[in-house]
Amino acid sequence: MTQQHSSLAFRWALRLHPAAYRAEHEAELTAIYAEATQGAGPLGRLREALDVAGHGLRRRTGLGSDRMAGQVLAQAAPLAVAVATGSFVAGLLWLFAPGVRTLPASSLPNVLSLANTGLTPLLWLAALAAVWTGRWTVARALVVPAMVLCLADVLLAAFSSSGFHGTPSIAVIRLAVPLLTGAVVLAAPRDLLGPSLSQRRTIMGTTVLAAVLVSGEQLVDMYYPFALGVLSVIGPLWAGVLWAGVLAIALLFGTRNRLTVAGVAVAVLPTMLQVTVQLTPAGVIVLLLVLLSSTVPFLRARRRHFQSTPPSAA
Questions:
Q1: Surface-to-core class of residue 270, CB atoms within 10 Å of its CB (0-12 exposed, 13-18 middle, 19+ buried)
Q2: What is the pTM of this model?
Q3: Sorted alphabetically, which keywords does the UniProt record give (predicted)?
Q4: pLDDT tens-digit profile of 201-257?
Q5: Using CA atoms, how far apart are residues 79 and 251, in angstroms rounded to an integer?
Q6: Are 208 and 80 in contact (CB under 8 A)?
Q7: CA 253 to CA 295: how far, in whole Å?
Q8: Which one of 41, 76, 104, 219 is separated from 227 by 20 to 30 angstroms, measured CA to CA?
Q9: What are the start-end ranges of the E strands in the chain?
Q10: Are 83 and 268 in contact, with CB atoms under 8 Å apart?
Q11: Who's near 300: CB < 8 A, 6+ residues apart?
Q12: 234 in helix, strand or coil?
């Protein structure tokens, strides 16, 4: 019965592929699935079926390894995990904030929120270790519960004694980092992902940079919580330094091409949205720079396409 359910999952996974692609490659996909699941248990067969489903969704959305969008996501995925890990590790500073030590321990939401603050960085660190060693299946499996914990953290904040730090819209924006980061990691083509010495250097540098910058912002927010004018200046400045710093690290240790530039923009965009949620003119400029840098490869590719297309005969 279990094998029948896994076969049903595989058939549904095949249906997610475009009809033309499925008609041409169904036998090949079935053979690959049968070989990968030979002797595997129920979870192993389900995991392979989910991989096939993800491949089908990438084909439908144009995020395959042969498309530029997929190649950009492959560049962005390890950097996105590094930025998220550095940010959440720096978030551990909240455990030492003066207000946290005075929260009533009898409140269950407070206790769960504090436990969540300590557990979430551990999941991101484990995901980063999996990325470091090239185990992307493990990394993706860890990113999903990390996203769930971040959602739970926002819900717990609504019922804790401290409440939301800001408006509900800001609380929703707090989900941008884990949800968008998870989307990038899950959507990146698996065959373009893998460990390399240059990638490891880039990951390490990006993680350290994000941790240092977020720690600085956390300290200002902890000890000067009412200095909104200061934060409105620091936020865009912090976002600009993060983007420029990660870009410099990626170009220094990685491949120097337009895909790298776009990948960096996609990787830092979730964190940028969180930092610049209360947009100032400086924040708008920084966000526009990041968004424009992410579209450069696509604009260049479109321009080359029009230049290479011969004019139609009259």
A1: buried
A2: 0.76
A3: Membrane, Transmembrane, Transmembrane helix
A4: 999 999 999 998 888 877 776 666 555 555 566 667 777 888 888 888 988 887 777
A5: 12
A6: no
A7: 22
A8: 104
A9: none
A10: yes
A11: 258
A12: helix
